[in-house]
């Protein structure tokens, strides 16, 4: 079903790969001029991908990987039962919102799709609780390995703090009781691991992560 153009001519493109979900979404959004629904083959041009799943389990996360590989980078799922899989893996594959199936409404779905299309996320309180539990577990594992959630270890963080303070590698080495060669190797290791080009990008990464 074709929806009318908005007065501004700009609409959010929503890819709905499953025919039944597409039919339901079209019915719910047919009077909303802000959305245009397209099929699976046009996924790469979509602002949001809308899918439906009975459960948020490992199999669903696998299906998210397939969506991600086809170009779906922002995913909204209508979920039928409680979430049980690794939420952070799902978010890394594009999951940006969960709408409980029993609470779906035309207005609520439109608001969620709009938020996600603009770069936001929408998760119910029970999903937020799952995220906090999984985050605590992940943090404990990282701490056992001397790592922070931002992907840096304490030695790397000390090095970046020195660079942010304008210190030379010699000065940083003296403060950390390392040779300049060791400091250089630490810097090279973290920039390579994080895909950064130089020390300036490394400092900027730490600043964005909120650890400096």
CATH H-level superfamily title of the largest domain:
Response regulator
- How many β-strand runs? 5
Count of runs of 4 or more consecutive helical residues:
9
Written as H for each helix and E for each strand, in order along the chain, the element string is EHEEHEHEHHHHHH
Secondary structural class: alpha/beta
Keywords: DNA-binding, Transcription, Transcription regulation
GO molecular function, one term: DNA binding
Domain HTH luxR-type: 145-210
Organism: Umezawaea endophytica
Q: What topology emerges from the helices and strands here?
A:
Layout: E1 12-15, H1 19-29, E2 35-38, E3 48-53, H2 58-69, E4 75-79, H3 87-92, E5 95-100, H4 106-117, H5 125-144, H6 154-164, H7 169-176, H8 180-193, H9 199-209
Parallel strand pairs: 1-2, 1-3, 3-4, 4-5
Question: How would you describe this protein?
Answer:
It is a single chain. This protein is an alpha/beta fold and 212 residues long. The protein has 2 domains: 128 residues, 3-Layer(aba) Sandwich (Rossmann fold); 63 residues, Arc Repressor Mutant, subunit A, CATH 1.10.10. The protein has 9 helices and 5 strands; from the N terminus they run E-H-E-E-H-E-H-E-H-H-H-H-H-H. Helix 1 links the parallel strand 1 and strand 2.
Characteristic key phrases:
DNA binding, 12% strand, Arc Repressor Mutant, subunit A, 212 residues, Response regulator transcription factor, 5-stranded parallel sheet, 5 strands, Rossmann fold, single chain, WalR-like, 50% helix, transcription regulation, transcription
